[in-house]
Write the structure tokens for this entry.
Amino acid sequence: MIGAAILGLVVGWPSRRLIGDYLAIVTLFFGEAFVEVTNNVAAHALGGPNGIAGIDPINALGVQITTNQGYYYLLMSPALVQQNFRIIKEIHASGVSVLMVEQNAMMALSIADRGYVLSTGEIVLEGAASELLRSEDLKRAYLGR
């Protein structure tokens, strides 16, 4: 961690006064320089372009992700969730009713008119979404706050 801080200082110090396009150019340069060092200069120590050797593959929902395409989909999943919510919000705004069952209570209630909170198949809270978002019981029991 100390090494990362020192590297950040060495990389960031010369570019601290840059703005706009120049900052973007320097940022891209250091990103590419890191890739080149990882792939060529430190290939033996770091495992080359395949990353650090000996790390087990990511296990997502019981499936081992070992390909670049698998990592791509794993990294894209939060963006896809955001896009799905944007589409649902557009459909709702057009006047179409939407019934949504969602684990992300904060996001779901932020676009809903009404909400129902279930626990073991029973409705334990219901009401206007704006009221549920302000409910201390809901925050404490289901949102961890």
